[in-house]
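User: I'm writing a short methods note and want a consistent example. For Exocyst complex component 3, I'll paste the sequence; you return only the structure tokens, no commentary, since I'll be parsing the reply automatically.
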Amino acid sequence: MEETDREAVATAVQRVAGMLQRPDQLDKVEQYRRREARKKASVEARLKAAIQSQLDGVRTGLSQLHNALNDVKDIQQSLIDVNKDWRQSINTIENLKDVKDAVVQHSQLAAAVENLKNIFSVPEIVRETQDLIERGELLQAHRKLMDLECSRDNLMYEQYRMDSKNTHDMNLIHTYFGDMQKLSEELAKQLWMVVQRSLVTVRRDPTLLVSVVRIIEREEKIDRRMLDRKKQTGFIPPGRPKKWKEKMFNILERTVSIRIEGTQADTRESDKMWLVRHLEIIRKYVLDDLLVAKTLLDQCFPPHYDIFNRMLNMYHQALSTRMQELAAEDLEANEIVSLLSWVLNTYKSAEMMGNSELSPEVDVNSLDPLISQNVVEQLLSKYMSTLTSNIIGWLRKALETDKKDWIKETEPEADQDGYYQTTLPAIVFQMFEQNLQVAAQINEDLKTKVLLLCLQQMNSFLTRYKDEAQLYKEEHLKNRQYPQCYVQYMIAVINNCQTFKESIISLKRKYLKIEMEDTLSSSHTSMDATLDIIAKEACTSLLDEVFMDLEPHLNELMTKKWLMGSNAVGTICVTVEDYFNDFAKIKKPYKKTMTMEAHRRVVVEYIRAIMLKRISFKNAEERKEGAERMIKEAEQFRFLFKKLTSGSGEDTEGLCDIIEAIAEVIKLTDPSLLYLEVSTLVSKYPDIRDDHIAALLTVRGDASRDMKQTIIETLDQGPSQPNPNYVPIFKEITVPTLTVPKLLK
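Assistant:
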């Protein structure tokens, strides 16, 4: 208490200090005192009033408790009296059974009286209801149907209560209301027609669809009420529960399935693109229907129906069923790709389920696959198997078509750079490209598999291509006048090899991941090697063609006629140049190889003519004349091939120098220096053999047998220091075998 007083005093001091902060406030001290006195009196009055109110409440509560206690005692006494009376009247209640039965009968009669008007007007109500159904006034028709059902159900229920085993009276009531069941079925037909066309109806007349939903909801409530009464009494009217809500969803599901299946307008026989059209129509219909379901249909159904998600599940299930049916059919390769591309990509893309207007209700990541992974793998396996057969067939057909071109009397087409070519590479790689583009629509893995397949089949195809080119050459050799454009088409074969190489590289760069390149390196190397073999054999075939024409002129070399001034080498140069005008249409990598090989073969044939010993010079004058002619002809060859190599100045491997070196041996006038000159020749060209030296000395005509023998034996004993850059040429030249034995005798 003292502490409270101290706090009060301290508070008062603070208040006074706050009031008297300036000197002029001392004049108002009396005024402040009166104001504080009034406040104090007011607070004391409020405290007294509050305390008085609490006291009055306590007093009232005590009075009510006292009264309640008295009431409880009175009720207790009354219960004791009631219990006593009840025990005394048990026997009396048992005697009131007749009254109870009378009450039940009265209840039944009361129900009959209450429904009497409806009972007598049943035929009329049935007619009115039928008219309403026919006019499409479904809500009013259902209202009257409900009244009829209610009358029937009440009568049957009262009959059931009175005598549940009396089936005769129950059947009588049921028969009397028999037309009502037909009305219910007729109304249901109308409802299901609207439900089947709900996606159309909701756009044209949404009120009608709402009416149907209201009728179904009414029936659902009646079903629940009847089932609850069955639990209590065991009675349920005929035809209950109707389960119209369940039937509605079943009809919607059936309608969705029919709509999906009904989109197939064509067959493979009538249209090869039937599946693509079918899938595109499905995509468009499903997307349109789901957008309508989300924006319009959802507003016509109660929220607890969750109609959009139910429709989404129905469409998904119907699509899954349809895709599985299509997968089970005997599909062609392109049809398998169309199906898988649609199932794996299109279905969840922005063009369909991933459409922005369907989100967020539709989450594509939560959608189950339309077909199982096992089915996908089976389809992919079938596709690869079919594609393998197709590619083999396409390649065979392409090669057969190309072979037919080879025997045409017209030259092959040329590309923009003027190089001869056939359509084979373009056809083959266009086919590969199309299949790879199709495979890429599905996934990367399939694209890689298809690329591997294409290159694998390409490898086998090139082997057949090589064999066919060889057969083409062999057929030509039987009659060189046929085919007329043999040279031009053989050039096209060579160019095709280069085109194939470039196309393979392009295909790998476009469709193969960098990390997968090592997988195909061996296959690529094998194909390059095969293409080089084909090109080399074709080049050899063309050169064979050249040298068959050159053969008569080559036979003139190193003969008396040649020494007397034959123009054989001039004719050879003109013929080679003429052929190389056509060979100019060979692409560069092979053209260069061709020119080098032609140069080599010309020189080899010239040296072979020397080694055949067709001529033996009689004196120094002939040797000089012959040697100078050889040097001149070597220069002609050098000029020719310089011209053919576009003035690059290359003298391939110094081939013409060999002719000049041999000419120097023949030209030598001092026989004592012959050994030195021959040894120089051998040191430059270490593959030269003894028979070559013997033949060369025979052509000179002034070396005795002993000199030949001495030179050969001395050279055999001498060391050989071959030039590392020298490519052997004499090993290709054979000297007649009888020459050496005759010499050594």
